[in-house]
Structures are given as structure tokens and as C-alpha cells.
Design a protein that fits this description.
The complex is a heterodimer of chains A (about 110) and B (about 110).
Chain A: E1 4-7, E2 10-13, E3 19-25, E4 31-37, E5 44-49, E6 56-57, E7 64-66, E8 76-78, E9 87-94, E10 102-103, E11 107-111
Chain B: E1 3-5, E2 9-13, E3 18-25, E4 32-37, E5 44-49, E6 53-57, E7 60-65, E8 70-75, E9 84-91, E10 97-99, E11 103-108
Parallel strand pairs in B: 2-11
Antiparallel strand pairs in B: 1-3, 3-8, 4-5, 4-9, 6-7, 7-8, 9-10, 9-11
Classes of the chains: A mainly beta (about 110), B mainly beta (about 110).
Chain lengths: ~110, ~110
């Protein structure tokens, strides 16, 4: 089934630890995005990639890094997790930057 | 700054009609999207408006007025499965999506 796969589904992480959230799509979409979603707030863009080999910073990039070595994969790394990074993280992709987004099922991350 | 406003929560009755409003102030406009998000799940695409007017898709319709910075999502013949959050998002001049906080719609029998 075509779509986006995120892993893990949920994770409890000790503060200070490094963590990589995985995101893989099989739709050959050019653009990919990482969002965090917190109660009462809209989806906030962390990082994005308009095409393989390029990345850009979104609204809340501090403490996060991404890479886009190929079309399909767009991992998000927390170098040293802090409790304020407790959130639900969604990966999304679109065929072009003007197209509708397809979202992964999300990763619920708790930093303690 | 850029801003998307929509009501936090709405309640409606099964079988009825509900209108969810969205107002926006953004730097430029390249289209407005509505997404549905059931609790604990990912957002899914509902509609896209780039020109003024009404777009109808089954029980759901979406309206846009660019001059007023205003859109609404109209849901007809409400079903219990329509209980969800509805997210309004505007694409700005840099082709970045600006998201509202979402409207939680509660359907009562």
C-alpha cells in the first residue's frame, strides 16, 4: 500500500539522549516535511526538503536536524532530547510544494 | 505575523449541517486546504480552494473569499464518524503551509 511509514510509533526517551525518528515514503514524492503537533497549537513545521539532497529550516528547527540522501527517506534526529520536545511528530510528503500533503501515522515521543 | 483563526470546538447533532469557519492573515496566498484528523490519527486531505467560490465534494463543501481572508467547511447530513478535528491551512507566498490549531467537532446522537 503506497504511503508513508513512520517508526517508532511511540517512544519514551531520557533527557539528553539522541534519537532518530524514521520516515519512509514509497510514492516518489519530491517534497517531505517534519511537523510537531502539540495540544492547542497548530501543526508546526520543523524542517522540510523540497527535493532529494536539499533541506530547509521551518518554524521550530532548534534541537532538530534532518537529512535527505534519497527520495524515499527523511529521518529526523534529536541530538540531545529535552522535555519540551515531548510531542507527536508527523512526517508528510507531497508530489510538489503546491500539492496536497500525505501524512504518516505519527510518532508519539515523551522525553522524561 | 501570519495567523489562522478557527473555533476551538463545535458541537452538532447527527443528521444536521455544520459550518466551520476559518479566517486568515498571511503573507501571500497560494491556496487554502482543509484536513480532517480523527483523534490519535494522521490528518487526511479534504479539500483545496485557490479561487473564490464553493467547491462541493459529496457531503462536504468548502468556500473561499480571498478578499475577506475567509473560508468555511460545510458538512451536511452529519454522521457520528464525522467527529474529528478539522484543520484549516493556508499556503503563503513562499509555498509554506500555515496551519490553524484546528476545530474539534463533536457529533451528538
Amino acid at each position: 500500500i503506497a504511503g508513508i511509514t513512520q517508526a517508532p510509533t511511540s517512544q519514551i526517551l531520557a533527557a539528553g539522549r539522541r534519537m532518530t525518528l524514521r520516515c519512509t515514503q514509497d510514492m516518489r514524492h519530491n517534497a517531505m516535511y517534519w511537523y510537531r503537533q502539540d495540544l492547542g497549537l497548530g501543526l508546526r513545521l520543523i524542517h522540510y526538503s523540497n527535493t532529494a539532497g536539499t533541506t530547509g529550516k521551518g518554524e521550530v528547527p532548534d534541537g532538530y536536524s534532518v537529512s535527505r540522501a534519497n527520495t524515499d527517506d527523511f529521518p529526523l534526529t534529536l541530538a540531545s532530547a529535552v522535555p519540551s520536545q515531548t510531542s507527536v511528530y508527523f512526517c508528510a510528503s507531497s508530489d510538489s510544494i503546491t500539492d496536497r500533503y500525505t501524512f504518516g501515522s505519527g510518532t508519539r515521543l515523551t522525553v522524561v | 505575523g501570519q495567523n489562522i483563526d478557527q473555533p476551538t470546538e463545535m458541537t452538532a447533532t447527527e443528521g444536521a449541517i455544520v459550518q466551520i469557519n476559518c479566517t486568515y492573515q498571511t503573507s501571500g496566498f497560494n491556496g487554502l486546504f482543509w484536513y480532517q484528523q480523527h483523534a490519535g490519527e494522521a490528518p487526511t486531505f479534504l479539500s483545496y480552494n485557490v479561487l473564490d467560490g464553493l467547491e462541493e465534494k459529496g457531503r462536504f463543501s468548502s468556500f473561499l473569499s480571498r478578499s475577506k481572508g475567509y473560508s468555511y467547511l460545510l458538512l451536511k447530513e452529519l454522521q457520528m464518524k464525522d467527529s474529528a478535528s478539522y484543520l484549516c491551512a493556508v499556503m503563503d507566498s513562499n509555498y509554506q503551509l500555515i496551519w490553524g490549531a484546528g476545530t474539534k467537532l463533536i457529533i451528538k446522537p
